[in-house]
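Lecture notes, continued. The same structure-token format from the folding unit now serves as the input rather than the output. Read the line below as a description of shape only.
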């Protein structure tokens, strides 16, 4: 096995088909290689760039992928315990439950462990609506351990990476491709609005 494979296995783990790459980071299928070698090589190179970006970021903070992670409720727990929504009104998961107010910004979500405990959640939505902004602010206001930052990330395709992390487990974090001048979910010129919102109650889960 290559050094790259060993690094990926240490961060992401292995399954029956090899490395457990998150959705959107998988290598192109072997069938494409047989049908069109040039197209396969081009897609493989793009996938490798994204994979390397993600691995380097996770290694920088000593993180490992969590197959159990789901929503900010998972992130607040002391151990990596999966939410168990049954899709009935009042289920606790804010991504898959009913209601699911965090499902919008948590597109292409990935959860991360530090020392086997919940440490961070990354997501890559195609757009951020006003409700999403309110939810990100809500979690920072609710739990002083939670922080939010943004960057370009690794998913690509016009998405923006949202990083939510536990600062008691990793004091400072930046998304992959961090955008200088951003403060949590807001731009610098929105700072006063952001501070006013954090000072007033926002909707709960």
């Amino acid at each position: 096995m290559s050094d790259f494979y060993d690094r990926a296995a240490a961060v992401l783990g292995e399954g029956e088909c090899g490395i457990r790459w998150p959705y959107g980071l998988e290598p192109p299928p072997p069938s494409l290689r047989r049908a069109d070698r040039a197209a396969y090589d081009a897609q493989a190179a793009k996938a490798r760039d994204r994979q390397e970006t993600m691995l380097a970021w996770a290694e920088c903070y000593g993180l490992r992928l969590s197959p159990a992670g789901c929503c900010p409720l998972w992130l607040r727990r002391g151990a990596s315990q999966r939410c168990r929504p049954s899709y009935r009104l009042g289920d606790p998961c804010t991504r898959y439950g009913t209601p699911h107010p965090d499902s919008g910004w948590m597109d292409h979500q990935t959860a991360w462990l530090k020392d086997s405990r919940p440490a961070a959640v990354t997501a890559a939505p195609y757009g951020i609506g006003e409700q999403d902004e309110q939810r990100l602010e809500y979690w920072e206001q609710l739990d002083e351990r939670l922080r939010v930052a943004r960057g370009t990330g690794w998913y690509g395709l016009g998405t923006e990476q949202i990083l939510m992390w536990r600062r008691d487990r990793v004091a400072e974090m930046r998304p992959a491709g961090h955008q200088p001048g951003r403060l949590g979910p807001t731009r610098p010129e929105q700072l006063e609005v952001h501070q006013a919102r954090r000072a007033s109650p926002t909707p709960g889960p």
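Point for the exam: The chain is about 35% helix and 15% strand.
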